[in-house]
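Subject: Inhibitor of nuclear factor kappa-B kinase subunit alpha

B.,
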Amino acid sequence: MDKPPFRQNQNCGDWEFKERLGMGGFAHVYLYQNHDTSEKIAVKMCRLELIPRNKDRWSREIQIMKKLNNLNVVTAREVPEEMKHIALNNLPLLAMEYCSKGDLRKMLSKPENCCGLKESEVLSLLNDVGSGVQYLHENKIIHRDLKPENVVLQDVNGKLVHKIIDLGYAKDLDQGSLCTSFVGTLQYLAPELFENKPYTVTVDYWSFGTMIFECSCGFRPFLHNLQPVQWASKVRSKGPKDIMAVEELNGEVRFSTHLPYPNNLSRTLLERMEMLLQLMLKWDPVQRGGKTNADSKKPQCFEVLEQILCMKVVHILNMSTAQVHSFQLVPEESLHSLQRRIETETKIELVNQELLQETGVSLDPRKAAAQCVLDGVVGLLLVPLCYFVGPKHTWVKRRFEKCVIDTLIGSR
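Prediction pasted inline below.
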């Protein structure tokens, strides 16, 4: 007996249909909420017309999802019994945790992010997606379709966490399927997938690197205004350390080894970020990612990523010039030593400096400079701001991230 057609507003026992979350190449995703518990789940359902290869791909994705357990990979849920009858065909449904904060594309599309995300948000992306990708690779899984639309955000105990979705979607690629199954998503695929060559985990390095670049600057690294079929032939000649290509008005392609301005990354971080991208965006898939460490078994790109996440950086706002100075803290460095470095860069003598935390409280000169960084921040990703105060007789308390002056005190 044929199954009745699925209605978008179809409720299933205690589960109420809320909305359609998205449409993919061969599946739709719907949001359901339980009347009694208020639990929300995302339910992915295959379309009725699927070729055999896509049916196999769908079955593999469900198998993969059910065996994975990582904070940065979306988690599979048991499909409620009363929901199983709504499938359009004999293929099973896939139930997943619902991530309510949208996807990374939504965040990148906000006007305030036209030149890239805030530094703290870029670091959070590095930590979360980097962790998820490494977990997948450790479990012998290549994602093959990493892109902003496949990274969703969830509030976990008041902190935004990135989670990878759509596992196994881009398997068994060939030239024909590239033209039919991946229209609109080719911009993040590694070059070897276009050329129908054998590929390894390094295809994910390219896609991840492309995302990192876009999140840092607001646009993709290589001729972002062209379709991949057009830019591939032009970018092929790039140098091993080139991380960006733009086309001049005369048609000449200009490459660069540096991140472009404007962006929201501090000078202290830029050099390491460029090193990371130079490893991830190598055209040669064998060299991409760098050499693997014999002890840690990690490729060089993930070791550089970990070095970035372990950096303790303090941002100091000079209230007399409204200029921000960034310093990487040396282990066990004293506050006096940090102030000497501030003096060298700003030409303001140590005796005329007063360093305040965001709350307006002065730093304790007897403690290490690391007091500038809040305790308990995982991976030191959310770097708080200290306020550099010029001459002691005048200071302005200011929230740097919002660029709002709170209070002006004329005399102390």
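Residues 1-5, 170-184, 375-412 have pLDDT under 50 and may be disordered.

T.
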